[in-house]
Structures are given as C-alpha cells and as structure tokens.
Amino acid sequence: NIGAKNSIEKERMQKMKELGITPEMLEMAQEVGVTLNRAVEGLNACRDSLQTQQRLAKRLDSDIERIYEDAKAAMIAKEEDRARQLLFERDRLQKKLKKVLMSCVDEKKRVQQMENNVEAIEDRAMEIESLLNRSVGAKALDDTSSANFEMGLKISEEDPLLQKFRDLEKVASDCHLSL
C-alpha cells in the first residue's frame, strides 16, 4: 500500500505541476486552511463561553430579584432575621454578578479580536486563492501560446502553396524596387 500511496502522491504532484501550482503554493494553501479552521474553532469557543456567561448573569440577576422580593415579604411578615439573611445573600450574589459581567466584557473583547483574526486569515486565504488562480491561468496561457506557436510553425512548414505566394510577392516587390 505504501507504493500505491507514493504513486498516487506522485500523480497528484504531477497534475499540480501541469496546472502551474508549485509544492510551496500548495503548502501555503494548506497552512492557511488549517489556520483558518483553528481560528474559526477558537472564535466559536469564545462565542460559546460568552453565551454561557451571559446566561449565568441572567440567572444571577433573576435570583437577585427573587431574593429581594422574598426579603421584602419577610419584612412585611416581621421576620427581620430572615430578611437580613436574604439581603446578605442578595449582596453576595450581586458581587458575583459584577464579576460575571466583567468576565462578559472581557469575553466580548476576545470575541471581537477573534473575529478580526478570522477576517484577516480569510483575507490571506483569498489572496492565496487568487495567486493559485493566476498561476493556473498563466500556465494555461503559456501552454496555449506555445501550442499556437508550434501550430503556426507547422502550418507554414506544411503549406507549400502559401509559401509559393509569399515568394511571388517578394519577387514582385523586388521588381518594383529595382525599377
């Protein structure tokens, strides 16, 4: 199987060469593809993390509201100790919410940075794609130009009648010059 794999790889490299794509160009394209995939995965992880923190913040905010309502009800019921405990719990949750919101701000910055990174890598990928397309186009143009040139030589070599007319035109123009 190793021989078959090597044969397939050689055939693939030959096809790339025929298209005008060098191994370096291919490696560049593969590297930017891997980098782009990693960057997109990182961006998705950052977005997931931000969403998780935002859900936590909403839950904490909801808990804080509920505890405050419970504390108000305890005060109305003249359960001051219970109300005090609930307000201390609310204060603890508010501090935790503040930390979570700060983490959300940091995570939003990371998401923005990752979006910028992905965009820059996408730009690089488009540049490489353009380079590959130009290279393939240039190779095709070179191949067709060479083929047309060779065909032109063959036509002039193979068409004796056309050569005879050119010779006659040259003799006629020489005659006019000498007169």
- The total strand number stands at 0
Largest sheet: none
Report the structural category.
Answer: mainly alpha
Evaluate the radius of gyration.
38 Å
SS strand fraction: under 5%
Mean pLDDT, to the nearest integer, reads 84
Helix count, DSSP H or I runs of 4 or more residues = 4
Low-confidence stretches: none
Distance between the termini: 80 Å
Global geometry: rod-shaped
Element order: H for helix, E for strand:
HHHH
Describe the structure.
The chain is 95% helix and 0% strand. With 179 residues, the protein is mostly helical. Helix 2 (23-76) packs antiparallel against helix 3 (80-158). The longest helix has 79 residues, at 80-158. The N and C termini lie far apart (80 Å). The mean pLDDT is 84.
Quick take:
This protein has 179 residues and is an all-alpha fold. It is built from 4 helices and no strands.
Question: Topology of this structure?
Answer:
Elements: H1 2-19, H2 23-76, H3 80-158, H4 160-178
Task: Summarize this structure as a short list of keywords or feature phrases.
179 residues; mainly alpha
